[in-house]
């Protein structure tokens, strides 16, 4: 009778340890699955964020290039227009001098 009690206690203790081991194993599996799930969700988001940052940097670079090109074209156009204006004013001043000279000193 005493041996039956010890055997029953031993079987109960063995079952308790087995159950505790299974619970720990399930918790470890659950944590591992959770980490994998989090990584699978975060990975595409991180890639998208990096792609977005790269696209923004490229866009800013292109904007800077376009702005620089437009400023250069504007400066070139202004210089050309100023040169044409100077030529026009010079021609007009020369014509005025010719006309005044012709009036003051008539041709014989």
What labels describe this entry?
95% helix, 108 residues, mainly alpha
Describe what this molecule looks like in 3D.
With 108 residues, the chain is mainly alpha-helical. The protein is built from 1 helix and no strands. The longest helix is centred in the middle third of the chain and has 103 residues, at 2-104. The mean pLDDT is 80.
Question: What is the strand and helix layout of this fold?
Answer:
Elements (H helix, E strand, L loop, with lengths): L1 H103 L4
Strand runs, count: 0
Structural class: mainly alpha
**Rounded to an integer, what's the Rg over CA atoms?**
46 Å
The low-confidence runs, each spanning 5 or more residues with pLDDT under 50, are none
| Helical content band | over 70%
Beta-strand content estimate: under 5%
What would the principal axes of the Cα set say about the shape? rod-shaped
Count of separate DSSP helical elements: 1
Separation, N- and C-terminal Cα atoms = 159 Å
Q: In sequence order, what are the helices and strands, one letter per element?
A: H
Biggest sheet descriptor: none
Name the average pLDDT: 80
